[in-house]
Write a structure and sequence with these properties.
The complex is a heterodimer of chains A (199) and B (608). In chain A, helix 1 packs across helix 7 (155-165), helix 5 (124-131) packs across helix 8 and helix 6 (137-146) runs antiparallel to helix 7. Chain A is mainly α and 199 residues long. The termini of chain A are far apart. In chain A, the strands form 2 sheets. A 3-stranded parallel beta sheet of chain A has the order 3-4-5, with helices on both faces. The longest helix of chain A has 24 residues, at 171-194. Chain A has a single domain, classed as Pyruvate-ferredoxin Oxidoreductase, domain 3 (3-Layer(aba) Sandwich). Chain A has 8 helices and 5 strands; from the N terminus they run H-E-E-E-H-E-H-H-E-H-H-H-H. In chain A, strand 3 (61-64), helix 2 (67-72) and strand 4 (82-86) form a beta-alpha-beta unit. Chain B is an alpha/beta fold. Chain B has 4 domains: 2-232, Thiamin diphosphate (ThDP)-binding fold, Pyr/PP domains (Rossmann fold, 3-Layer(aba) Sandwich); 237-336, Rossmann fold (3-Layer(aba) Sandwich); 370-544, Rossmann fold, CATH 3.40.50.970; 553-606, Alpha-Beta Plaits. In chain B, strands 3-2-4-5-7-6-12 form a 7-stranded mixed beta sheet, sandwiched between helices. A 5-stranded mixed beta sheet of chain B has the order 9-11-10-13-14, with helices on both faces. Chain B has a 5-stranded parallel beta sheet with strand order 15-16-17-21-20, with helices on both faces. In chain B, helix 2 runs parallel beside helix 3 (44-57), helix 2 crosses helix 7 (148-165) and helix 5 (90-106) packs across helix 10. The longest helix of chain B is centred in the middle third of the chain and has 24 residues, at 209-232. Chain B is globular, with a radius of gyration of 27 Å. Chain B starts with a helix and ends with a strand. The chains are: A mainly alpha (199), B alpha/beta (608). Chains A and B meet through helix 1, strand 1, helix 2, helix 3 and helix 4 of A and strand 1, strand 8, helix 11, helix 14 and strand 23 of B.
Chain lengths: 199, 608
């Protein structure tokens, strides 16, 4: 959602792709949606990409910054899409006003798990805190996606592009956040390999 | 991203640019000397980019008071022999159209390019008008880019065309082109513009009726030449193979090119006048043709006419046949939905949708936004009295959301003031109009003078947050400018408003809710039009300038009686209820102190 750094994260991925000599097209949303509304950015990497938007079911990776907003975007994903989702909810004001309800995060994750076998939940806010700043959620998630199977960019390029864009004084924090995020997903992946899904 | 703004000065190579940044780069490669705009999404980043580089690039750039003035500044600069560029969102062209419709007649000496950034799906707009129809209406050549790369190339080409034809050229983008990011190969920058003078030619540039008639005939002749250029333009090209033909333009081309199979595509970039012979030749070679374009059936109607005139019987599908929608932007899914007419690419089956009910997340006023405090104080001042709220274009139109509900009528830039006059004249309801600082200068001032002139009784609240916030914090006449080697002082609201003939005008800081409430109460009692200036800088602007001092607040849970006045009536997004307790998100709270003033129990204070 607006203010979470979705645009920064997508800019990092896009310039990492450019750095690696890959073709890339992206779409962003500016303006009113940025005032606390839902923000979707898309990044398409590969030969001959032209369309900045992704068809339903056409995403290889869904990176969700917020659980309810990620579930709202589920239609861009298919059975073969890896889904990395931050489990920390940001409750819209409508809910505090008592006009609408925010479902329990567990219910949202169950719903994700019901739909997809490639779900990688991560508490990016806690990991960011652990790295030294709540502001580093972004970096945690960028580190996390680099660990996903068949991710097309090298972890080092993404990290370099990220660090180039953060203020000098918070570089260490963001590097730590990036590495911890990466580590979390790697360990989830190795668990998956050890205990394949039985259903 | 800010680093791209300076990166657009890079000498060679390639850059990953936003469509709008690519347009700004195109201006630099074209040797533009003058650029003017009024900010509006989705065109704004052209300006935020030029603002940062104008000085270094030797361009004169300004935020004009509105689009009409921007058009006039650029029209006259181009008549003086300098390449000029004016850009705006689609509805901005409505404002500029009075100047434009006649500028087309007198034409231009140096290149004059007008960019309209349309907003299909109304992501940030009040309508989704298709300004390609403006090109046709005004008789103006038009280029329509599909990608950031084309956005830059067409900007440069538009200047050549404009000089070749001696008339302004429209560069028409949409949100998904302006806000797409893609790889843009760079060409050398041009900054060798010699000084020139305005050479007088009143027979051409003074559009009295006798001259207008002569210019009208020249205009028709120019458009005939434009048609010849369109037939030859490399921006109109074919790709792919198949018995089915697809004619497309703009962003829709990228969807068609990637997600349709076994079709030959005629991609049109020079779309007014469309290349008639090329289209006729293409249509006559195909078993069927689909016209894939967003919004109005602009190309489709041209294709139908061209085929009809030449007796070509190929079936032509599109919006007129109900195969494509007229409302809202397209996506790859839109062209994948054409499978009854053409082979489409395989895409994996989408997950979901989920049946879990999710809360909506409309945009809201930010934590610490001074507009919220103003709205709250106005509602306190009104008490149980009903009022009609006439709102305007800016962040503050978000006052429509609960629990504030401070927007009942809104049309366009400046409409709050004129419309308030209309309601207050014909009903006995209390009317309060809200307008932002930048919007007031843009089109609110004539409405206020009208209210004085015709004695319309209402209260106008000018929400002065010291910036044009929604579009990315551009300066405005109230702030003065300080970029591009030029510094000016701001216009004083109270002096301006008094000069318009208003006898009640007061300035208040909305973060002092009690004083603001009292000021508004007095203004409401005043007979005739009254003005309150609610002045407090936008916290996002302060944060950008690293000038924001925050004093995070928290809640004394022992004093809190769970009345939820702060959450339910003031509704700052930093406040939320968790297990019945109200809490303040320290990452959002800036410490404006308003919720502390709202709390009836004094339970909210600065974190110690």
């Amino acid at each position: 959602m607006g203010g979470q750094g979705v645009l920064l994260a997508s800019a990092v991925l896009g310039s990492a792709a450019l750095e690696e000599g890959k073709e890339v097209v992206m779409s962003e949303l500016h303006g009113m949606a940025q005032r606390g509304g839902s923000v979707v950015a898309t990044v398409r990497i590969g030969e001959g990409v032209l369309s900045p938007l992704i068809p339903s079911g056409g995403a290889n990776l869904l990176l969700g910054f917020e659980p309810a907003e990620s579930l709202r975007a589920i239609q861009c994903a298919s059975k073969s899409t890896s889904i990395v989702v931050n489990v920390h909810p940001i409750v819209p004001i409508q809910v505090s006003l008592g006009l609408e309800a925010y479902p329990p995060v567990e219910r949202i994750l169950e719903e994700f798990a019901r739909l997809s076998d490639l779900l990688y939940p991560i508490d990016a806010l806690s990991v960011a805190r652990e790295s030294g700043s709540e502001m580093a959620v972004n970096s945690v998630l960028l580190g996390a996606v680099c660990a996903v199977k068949a991710f097309p960019l090298s972890k080092d390029t993404v990290q370099e592009e990220l660090i180039r864009r953060v203020p000098r004084q918070s570089r260490n924090i963001n590097e730590t956040a990036f590495s911890l995020g990466h580590e979390k997903i790697r360990s989830l992946l190795s668990e998956q390999v050890q205990s394949p899904s039985t259903d | 991203m800010s680093d791209c703004s300076v990166a657009v000065l890079k000498a060679e190579g390639a850059l990953l640019l936003l469509g709008n940044e690519a347009v700004a780069r195109g201006c630099l490669e074209a040797g533009v000397k003058v650029a003017a705009t009024y900010p509006g999404t989705p065109s704004s980043e052209v300006g935020t980019t030029l603002e940062r580089v104008a000085d270094k690039a030797g361009i004169y750039f300004e935020y004009s008071v509105n689009e009409k003035v921007a058009m006039e500044v650029c029209g006259a600069a181009a008549a003086s022999g300098f390449r000029a560029f004016t850009f705006m969102k689609h509805v901005g062209l409505n404002v500029a159209s009075d100047a434009l419709m006649t500028l087309i007649y007198s034409g231009t000496r140096a290149g004059l390019v007008v960019m309209s950034a349309d907003d299909p799906s109304c992501h940030s707009s009040q309508n989704e008008q298709d300004n390609r129809l403006f090109a046709k209406f005004a008789m103006m050549p038009m280029l329509e880019p599909s990608t950031p790369r084309e956005a830059k190339e067409m900007t440069v080409e538009a200047f050549r065309l404009s000089e070749d034809l001696e008339m302004p050229v429209l560069l028409r983008t949409t949100t998904r082109v302006s806000h797409a990011r893609g790889i843009v190969p760079l060409a050398p920058l041009r900054s060798d513009v010699p000084p020139r003078r305005f050479e007088k030619d009143p027979g051409r540039f003074v559009t009295i009726p006798a001259n207008a008639r002569a210019n009208r005939l020249k205009l028709i002749a120019r458009m005939k030449k434009a048609l010849e250029l369109s037939e030859l333009s490399p921006f109109n090209f074919t790709s792919g193979r198949g018995k089915v033909g697809v004619i497309t333009s703009g962003i829709a081309y990228t969807y068609a090119a990637e997600f349709l199979g076994e079709a030959e595509i005629l991609k049109l970039g020079f779309t007014n006048p469309p290349p008639e012979k090329r289209i006729a030749d293409f249509v006559s070679r195909k078993e069927s043709v689909i016209v894939v374009e967003e919004l109005e059936p602009y190309l489709e109607d041209e294709v139908l006419r061209i085929a009809k005139e030449r007796g070509i019987a190929t079936p032509i599908y599109g919006k007129r046949t109900g195969h494509l929608p007229r409302a809202f932007e397209f996506s790859p899914d839109t062209v994948l939905g054409l499978r009854s007419l053409v082979k489409v690419k395989d895409v994996p089956e989408a997950l979901g949708p989920s049946s879990l009910r999710l809360p909506s997340r409309p945009p809201v006023l930010c934590a610490g936004c001074p507009h919220r405090a103003t709205y709250y104080a106005v509602k306190l001042a009104l008490g149980k009295r009903e009022a009609v709220f006439s709102s305007d274009v800016g962040c503050y139109s978000l006052g429509i959301q609960p629990p504030l509900h401070t927007a009942d009528f809104l049309l366009c830039m400046g409409s709050s003031v004129g419309a308030a006059g209309g309601v207050s004249q014909v009903t006995d309801q209390k009317v309060v109009a809200f307008i932002g600082d930048s919007t007031f200068f843009h089109a609110g001032v004539p409405g206020l003078i009208n209210a004085v002139f015709n004695d319309h009784p209402f209260l106008l609240v000018i929400l002065d947050n010291g910036t044009t916030a929604m579009t990315g914090h551009q300066p405005n006449p109230a702030t003065g400018r300080d970029f591009g080697g030029k510094r000016t002082e701001g216009v004083d609201f109270e002096a301006l408003v008094r000069g318009c003939g208003v006898h009640f005008v007061r300035t208040t800081d909305p973060f002092d809710i009690k004083k603001t409430k009292e000021t508004v109460r007095e203004a409401l009692e005043f007979e005739g039009v009254s003005v309150v200036v609610a002045k407090h800088p936008c916290p996002l602007l302060l944060r950008k300038g690293k000038r924001l001092e925050t004093f995070p607040h928290n809640i004394d849970q022992e004093k809190c009686v769970r009345c939820y006045t702060c959450v339910r009536k003031f509704s700052c997004p930093a406040l939320s209820i968790k297990e019945e307790a109200v809490s303040i998100d320290p990452s959002l709270c800036i410490g404006c102190g308003c919720c502390a003033q709202v709390c009836p129990k004094g339970a909210i204070g600065v974190v110690r």
